Amino acid sequence: MDKKYGVYICTGCGIGEALDVDGLSAIAQENGMTAKTHEAFCGEAGRQMIKDDMANEGVNVPVICACSPRVWKEEFNFGPESITVRANLREGVVWSAEKPSDDRSQEVVDEFTNELAQDYVRIACAQAMKIDLPVPYKQETTNRRILVMGGGIAGLTAAREAAKAGHEVLLVEKTDKLGGKALGWRKQLPTKAPWNALEESSIQELVSAVQTDSRITVKTSTEVARIAGAPGAFQITFKEAGTRSEWDAPSRVTVDMQDKIDKGEMEDPNAGYKKYTEANPAAEIVGAVVLATGWVPADVSEFEHLGHGKLKNVVTNAEFEELAKEGKVPANVAFIQSPGGEEHDKDFPYANSVTSMVALKQASYVREDNPDGKAYVLYQHMRTPGNMELFYKGAQNNDGIFLTKATVTGVEESGSGLVVKTKDTLLQEDLNLEVDMVVLGAGMKPTTALAPTVNLSYRQGPAFLDLELFDGYADSNFICFPYETRRTGVYACGGVRKATDMVETIDDACGAALKAIQCIESADHGVSVHPRSGDGSYPEFYFQRCTQCKRCTEECPFGALDDDAKGTPLPNPTRCRRCGTCMGACPERIIGFKNYSIDMIGSMVKAVEVPDDDEDKLRIVAFVCENDAYPALDMAAMRRISLNNLVRVIPVRCLGSVNMVWIKDALSSGMDGALLLGCKFGDDYQCHFVKGSEIADKRMANIGETLGSLGLEPERCGVRQVAITDYDTVSEVINEFIEEIKELGPNPFKGF
Amino acid sequence: MTDERSAPAGAVLVVGGGISGLTTALEAAEVGQEVFLVEKNPYLGGRVAQLNQYFPKLCPPSCGLEINYQRLKNNRKIRVHTMTEVKSVSGGPGNYKVTLLSRPRYINSNCTCCGACSDACQDEIDNPFNFGMDKVKAVRKVHDHAFPARYVLDKAACSQSSLDAILAACKYDAIDLNMQEREMTVEVSSIVWATGWNPYDPTKMENLKFGSSPAIITNMMMERLASSSGPTGGKILRPGDNAEPASFAFVQCAGSRDENHLEYCSYICCMASMKQINYIRAQYPEAPITVFYIDLRTPGKYEKFREKLMADEKITWIKGKVADIIAESDGSVTLVAENAVSGDKVKTKVDLAILATGMQPALDQAKALGVDTDANGFVLSQDEGMISAGCAKKASDVVTCAQSATAAAMKAIQASRR
Known about the structure:
The structure holds 2 protein chains of 2 kinds. Chain A is α/β, with parallel strands linked by helices. Chain A is built from 19 helices and 30 strands. In chain A, α2 runs parallel beside α5. Chain B has helices spanning 19-29, 61-73, 116-120, 160-169, 219-226, 269-283, 303-310, 398-417; strands at residues 12-15, 35-38, 78-81, 84-92, 95-102, 124-126, 135-137, 139-140, 152-153, 182-188, 190-193, 197-199, 216-218, 248-254, 289-293, 315-319, 322-327, 333-338, 345-350, 352-357, 359-361, 386-388. Chain B has a 5-stranded parallel sheet with strand order 3-2-1-11-22, covered by helices on one side. Chain A: It comes from Desulfurivibrio alkaliphilus. Chain A: InterPro entries: 4Fe4S_Fe-S-bd, 4Fe4S_Fe_S_CS, FAD/NAD-bd_sf, HdrA-like, MvhD/FlpD.
């Protein structure tokens, strides 16, 4: 791109009063750029001034030195042929300016404030010179077909909804027929108002709707051996269900494991299988995947006092449903929800609230089949959320259904029947219930807790990662974004993601199908999906200098990078979420985006003017996560909280993208410290790119050693976790870091 | 805020800009769908914008909202209209004609959020965002993270001298006192009702005596008290006297699971109270806390969250419904209940009682708008063009709202591709 710059310094919102605007214009001049001022570039007249320059002077890189880049984003977007660069003078300098004190007069404060503003103009000019227009990555062809794995309610719904939106669907089911668990149901829970009565199962209706839909191709008795490729062009290898295939997805082999295999110290777990990068010419191509492989009844044998597997007529809810479907159920039945006895009041593992509702459903079978039947539902906490409370109320009104909180201490044989021993009931007495059968409210264990299931043929292995955080469910860590997992283009729904009822499963499946379509559209346009939705940039690799260190392939949170036999990365841009973690990982600095690169940020760091003779004027660079920590700084400024004016803030896509060379750039140009502000990490991580802040923390621990060897204190670099709501404390977090730097004294290499 | 771009064909109208409406709008727009998003408030984010943290991660809602606002800024397919409600609907699936009514903000798009008007304004109002627990200027940005970032003026609350001062203070010609209510008509292929919920009016439960003592607050008020952007800067203090409470009680099912009030379960209140116990513990590590409940509905992955609190010896869990709350002369309150397991009558005196009030669907003009609801006011998806999402559909937590909102986007896409 042939670039023509124009610098636009706004004097509104207090900028003109607080700063020496002529001085800022002079800095633009030093960078060979012409500066203009206006009292409100965000207004109609101000924007027109920029537009006129674009039309008359050919400016295509306007450098707007005004408010935070988070505001007026659309208004300062001048179309796809131009790049807007922003310098944050309002929130970043003026609104967060230091207030004069007894120690520091207005004059001194003004000097520091102006130096900060000048550096931000320098940084913006440097960015303008290095930034380039992204060109979206376009696959040759984008396949719009959707693979749905699993033919139960979730899978059938996803298939049908995707088809209704005009997409071809390939639906695979492991068993020989469609319908899944629902085929075995005698009745189903209420799905609509007034929510008080069981319904006839609607599964056959759904099955025939799928079977008669010409856009849906069904493969039963079939499993997915492996999924290779990427969104828009996944390559699916099928196999007969229950068989082994040479195309089965290979297990994950880490760099260390490969080393041992090569040395003969470890057996290759993938011997006999096709390599994960080998293309199967017979593979079917799809654009995106919906994972709806459901659940299996969870094991209850650990609760020995309840007698399952030992006592006749102690069954699970799944076994009872089968009995009920086939014929008559016994007349006196106890339903146990909470197996913990006197130890705890939790429900069975993998239960969620479904088991409470299923118990109520099955209690009504007892009544349907036996005019004098009695069903005892024993719970610690009856869980019928939302409208299902009305179903619960219906059961309460049924004369033969007895519902009580109870601590079940044991189940024993008694004559031909069973006796259930309980304590702490609502009748204020211990009860021994004589029944014909005991039903245990076993939970729904997701298929992903048992096997990789999604069978990805990826460098990082066949399964979703870190599912132990979600008890094995293929869930998302994000409350606001439940479909966002670490595998782009694969969306889980139904029982594989959560033990849920039918109503929620249907919504979930419908949503997953939408996400699959959205991913295909994004791949087709060459843009990213969530959270950088619509981003047309993507990482490019200069392979000639790659040393095959494999850091990028290992660290990518989304498994976007495969590799060849030598270990050179094989990028899959449609899997990529554009966080830049690969760029941050690369020691050779060969990865970059057109509009976000090692050179660009490095140049921005080096643009900071570092005084070499003034101990009061330390310079600290702060790489700040633009998603959370940066808005926190903005909001601190809106509240007019002073932010330390020794710090030069550079927003980054994610801390994961911070390359350690930028730290070296900063310290070798005489800056006194480097601070990384990013999201919380750990089990409840808030990083939108999952691992970015955690990886940055590890890298910084390592750079500490490097700095130590250079004679610089590792404490000059720090990572701090800042949430978006920490605007009241972020200023202190920064000040504390700077106090530590002050204790260390200026960078000894300053001026060299 | 009003987006003046002309109406596209086959668009979807999303009513409500809370987490559900926002999600539907974004998920649909990112497939390429044209969207009108209308919101009654001057800002997007709805109820979740008022929350301090989400359960079970205890993460801030503005974190996800920020991402959603960035997505919105980067997507030209969505036209946002704040302070706007649906006045009437005609037509049918595929071709609805919807009349929208926008209230005047009195602040136009020149507003830079510099804050000079607010400094100049002399009049204050009870802050609706903080449930009246503090005062704000009659011209203000509703909260720190408000999107669109633009001020709003409560003209009726201002004296003429305030209005003159506000006009004089604005350097950007952003104050327009003559702004009028405006109507606009949009043609859309489908309508997604994501109109959300209101906290159930606590004064309706006469036995809980809300209003008789400042020591009785609702769970939503607690969210604001705990929030650093709230009336106390995040310190949990008793409204009225700003005392540091030494003891707390939670009244679960305040209105929910009750034939005389809300017959359904409001889904979130058990977890919300447990979340709020975490807020309290961060500030008052030793304070005794009593929870009165019917059942603890913390199923599935929420059990881990509960387990931690069950181990806290300073928390007393009583299965029993609160029958009465008595305001005491020392500023505290006494809760009266029956323990359902022991049968004992319990009296607990605390410095602050929190009513876990439930969710009531917020759409009140359903019938006039031709929207089908169930007996409790939840919106039913009546055909292929009328779609419900989030808490307008059923009481839900945020995850479930995001799921149903994404599902609603699918239905909207289908309607426009038909």
